[in-house]
Design a protein that fits this description.
Layout lengths: L6 H8 L4 E5 L6 H8 L5 E3 L3 H9 L1 H6 L5 E4 L7 H11 L6 E5 L2 H11 L4 E5 L5 H4 L9 H7 L3 H5 L4 H20 L5 H12 L4 E2 L2 H8 L3 H13 L3 E4 L15 E4 L2 H7 L5 H5 L4 H18 L7 E5 L5 E7 L4 E7 L6 H14 L5 E7 L5 E2 L4 E4 L10
Parallel strand pairs: 1-4, 1-5, 2-3, 3-4, 11-12, 12-14
Antiparallel strand pairs: 6-8, 7-8, 9-10, 10-11, 13-14
Helix pairs in contact: 5-6, 8-14, 11-12, 12-13
Length: about 400
């Protein structure tokens, strides 16, 4: 197993909380991480029908088999188990005793909030970040290879052709997990919805237009989007408002956690296709946003990322709220740094600066790094370097 960036935060939390809850998409490496960090803990998986039946039918007896705690995988399959764990935790508050994982965010966190509030640390393990992918012996080198391959560990660890693996992943997700999370009757239409969402990555989320294009009602589209969020496939990036006296866009932007999945859903199978695809810039923007999201979640920070756009079209693709200052980031897929590339970030920063201190960045698809008077230009392959932030 390669070292995951969430490892330090996980071990730190295990020293303070009796329960750790680690969520993330399927196949993001949650089980591997927990078994590697807590080898002394027994391991059990509630996806196994006999194990799940035991836990559902007699939760007290099931938990009695682990007097010193355990790693319990896919705990959302038996949510009532958390209430029984709460009783055991209140009787014995040993730090790091129970390690719970789940691949359904909203369902799991609802159970956690009801049963384990104040007793558990909640962490999120997403697909590999760029820094994690580079720890494998073989990993994508060029930007288009990175965007196309994505970051699911099995693609790197088992060296499975990414298109084959993602095809099986989507089939499994649509046919099994969607029915588990919600009673979606028309799976064909849902897959169409998933593909249309991929085509809207890095765009403002207009649920009414999306529902119309899919051929479903707006409440249905909203419910289906919640499924994508619950299973850590997509997320909404909120707009930055603060106290600016401006007419600002209030719609969120839609992004995916993995650009390999986006490319597969869009029918992009080769770097040559991606290179000329009209959505390449949007896919690159989503990659940057997802990398920043992974970086923050790996440090236990789940908030603080936004985008900025006013009614005149002045925009910064990412706003990072550092508390004492903002970092405004514009994303450009072009490889050559030009004044036109820097202009949008400068305009957005000029609007934000009267309210707070702003640092301005442009992340681009080339190799040049430049430190100008008012803008820092970063190449895509230095986004995970800590010195700029």
């Amino acid at each position: 197993m390669v070292r995951r960036d969430l490892s330090d935060k996980t071990l730190e939390a295990a020293k303070s909380f009796p329960v750790l809850t680690i969520t993330g998409p399927r196949q993001s490496g949650k089980s591997t991480l927990c078994r590697a960090l807590f080898p002394q803990h027994p391991y059990t998986n509630l996806e196994q029908p006999d194990v799940r039946s035991f836990a559902l039918d007699d939760p007290r007896a099931f938990l009695a088999g682990y007097p010193d705690g355990a790693v319990i995988d896919e705990v959302q399959r038996c949510p009532d188990l958390l209430s029984y764990i709460q009783v055991l935790v209140d009787e014995k508050k040993t730090p790091g005793r129970w390690i719970l994982t789940g691949s359904q965010n909203l369902l799991l966190l609802e159970s956690v909030s009801q049963s384990l509030a104040g007793r558990t640390a909640v962490l999120h393990l997403l697909p590999l970040s760029r820094s994690e992918a580079r720890r494998f012996r073989v990993y994508p080198k060029t930007l288009d290879e990175v965007l196309l391959t994505g970051g699911y560990p099995a693609i790197f660890d088992k060296r499975v052709p990414f298109a084959d693996w993602l095809s099986a992943y989507v089939a499994t997700y649509v046919e099994r997990d969607v029915r588990t999370i919600s009673n979606v009757a028309d799976l064909t239409t849902f897959q169409r919805f998933l593909e249309l969402c991929a085509g809207r990555t890095a765009q403002l989320l207009n649920l009414s237009a999306l529902a119309s294009d899919v051929g479903v009602s707006q409440p249905t589209a909203k419910a289906w989007l919640s499924i994508l969020e619950a299973s850590f496939l997509a997320f909404r990036l909120p707009p930055f408002h603060a106290n600016l006296r401006k007419r600002l866009v209030k719609m969120p932007k839609l992004h995916f956690y993995d650009t390999g999945l986006v490319c597969w859903l869009l029918g992009i199978r080769t770097t040559e296709q991606l290179r000329v695809h009209p959505l390449r810039g949007a896919i690159f923007e989503t990659w940057v946003v997802s990398e920043l999201t992974k970086h923050r979640m790996n440090r236990g920070e789940n908030r603080g990322l936004f985008f900025f756009r006013d009614r005149h079209g002045v925009e910064a693709d990412v706003i990072i709220d550092r508390g004492d200052r903002l970092q405004a980031i514009e994303v450009k897929a072009g490889e050559t740094v030009t004044d036109d590339m820097l202009r949008p970030a400068r305009r957005a920063s000029a609007i934000l600066k009267p309210a707070t201190q702003v640092e301005t960045f442009v992340v681009h698809g080339g190799a040049a790094r430049q430190s100008r008077q008012d803008v820092t230009v970063l190449p895509w392959n230095q986004l995970d370097k800590p010195d700029w932030a």
